[in-house]
Each structure stands twice: as C-alpha cells, then as structure tokens.
Design goal:
alpha/beta, 7-stranded mixed sheet, 5 helices
C-alpha cells in the first residue's frame, strides 16, 4: 500500500497534464473558468464521459469524427487507438515539459495515465477549430473530474492539438496540455 501511495502524486501530475489534456484557447479564458466552478463527480452514473457543454466550432464531419474518436479512446482505455492517432514524429508538451519522444511518452507517461482517465469525466466548455488546408489547430477548454484513492480531484484544462492530414487521415502532429486545480 505504501508503494501505491507514493505513485499517487505521479499519477495525479500525469493526469493533470493529459487533459486533456487538456489546454490552450484561441481567445480569452471564459469568465466561468476564472470563478469557483461546480464540477460533476466522476463517480456519478450515466451520461457520456466526455460532455460538450458549450458546443464546438468543428464543422468538418471527418475532423469531428477524428476528435470524437480520440477522446473516446482516451477516456475508454483504448491505448491502441490513442497511440495511432499521433503522427510518428509528434511532439508533446505537458505543463512546461517537452517529452523526449512519442514512444517514451506513450509507454511511460500516457499508458499508465489511461487507467485514471477511464474513470474521469471531461466537460468541454469551449472547443474551436482553425483549418489551415491540410492542417488544423484544435483548441479546447474543459473541466476534468476524477477520483484517485477515494479523493475527488477537479481541474480546469486547456489543450492545443495541431493536426495534419497524412495519407488521407488526420493525425496529431503536436499536443500541448496543461491544467490547474479548480478553486472552490
């Protein structure tokens, strides 16, 4: 049990950086993000794990399907789908750190986090797309809620995903995730 408790800070730090991610916005932070925010408990039953609360500007159906599949896989513990969503030379930034390589990030960082992400609930506040031909920039602001060893944790998250279309499919070329605790 002691060894497991030592891993909790690492797991929390890892999950914070994932959320989703999560993530830079193109505009200013919504006022609701700067105020105290009630976040749904990750233990609540029913409903999807990723909730789009504010709507999304992603109009392209193919792009929307890719993003939905990525988030569903991330929160559904589908490591294979998540890992193949990245370009082989993708660059990952999380909370001020550049990951050494995609394979190292996937194996040593993301894969262990996915067990916690499986129980997390993500409420998307703002999600925007900036199409640039065969490239697209996706920015997301969200609330992330999960429980680790019985402790409820809630975070504001911002995410930037730089996507590129290669071989007829969208891939994540660059991801930048950061989060901060919700202040109640």
């Amino acid at each position: 049990m002691k060894n497991r408790s030592k891993n909790v800070p690492a797991i929390i730090a890892a999950v914070i950086t994932v959320s989703v991610i999560y993530f830079f916005t193109l505009g200013s932070v919504p006022e609701s993000d700067t105020q105290s925010t009630k976040v749904e408990s990750s233990s609540e039953k029913g409903g999807p794990k990723v909730v789009n609360a504010a709507g999304s500007s992603i109009q392209n159906a193919e792009l929307r399907a890719f993003i939905d599949q990525f988030y569903s896989a991330l929160h559904g513990d589908d490591f294979e789908t998540v890992s193949t969503s990245f370009a082989k030379d993708a660059i990952i930034f999380e909370n001020g750190i550049r990951e050494t390589s995609l394979p190292v990030y996937l194996k040593q960082h993301l894969k262990p986090e996915m067990a916690v992400m499986k129980s997390a609930r993500r409420r998307i506040l703002v999600q925007e797309a900036m199409p640039l031909g065969d490239r697209t920039l996706i920015t997301t602001s969200s609330l992330l809620s999960f429980s680790v060893e019985g402790k409820q944790l809630n975070f504001h998250s911002v995410e930037t995903l730089a996507l590129v279309k290669k071989g007829g499919r969208w891939l994540i070329q660059h991801a930048h995730w950061s989060s901060r605790p919700v202040q109640n």
